[in-house]
Amino acid sequence: LQLEDVLGVQKEMGQSCMAAARPMKLADTHFITAGLPDDIQLGTGMSFVFQSSDAAEVLSVSDLGHVQLSANSFAQGRGVYLSELPYNLDNARLLLRAIAWAAGKEDSLDTGVCDNPNTDCAHYVEAGCTAIANHTAEPQTTSFVDDQGSCQILDLKPYELTWL
Q1: Where are the beta strands (DSSP E) in 26-105?
Q2: Picking from 46-55, 66-75, 94-103, which range would have the lowest pLDDT averaged per residue?
Q3: pLDDT exceeding 70 applies to what percent of the chain?
């Protein structure tokens, strides 16, 4: 991979003497995966991707032991490797959290975001209102913290949209 030093992973191309077979330790917790299910569905992904930097945190591996998701701090920046990211509500939240982490803006998700990945919000600052939507066929409970720090807990019916 061209960005091996930034991403902390490499693809085995048959030139590194079975480096992909070395054992990897999954990170117990990480900002990117916080609040998401343990069985994140990252698709089939790319085969024979392995951890090449001890600093890289491996967050998910395939059934065959190939890296699917990793996070790496590099110089003054950060890199995130995703082998594949099929769309679903959990993966949309994962992508949002990965972008915030890579940008060093984790605090930006403290307000204006629902804590439940099955719900979403649109905050209209100038109008002073917020729409909260449940995107599932199941009732959902979510909390929303507005830009003043006020937290509201909402119980939403299936596919309900409510205004605050």
Answers
A1: 49-51, 57-61, 67-74, 77-82
A2: 46-55
A3: 89
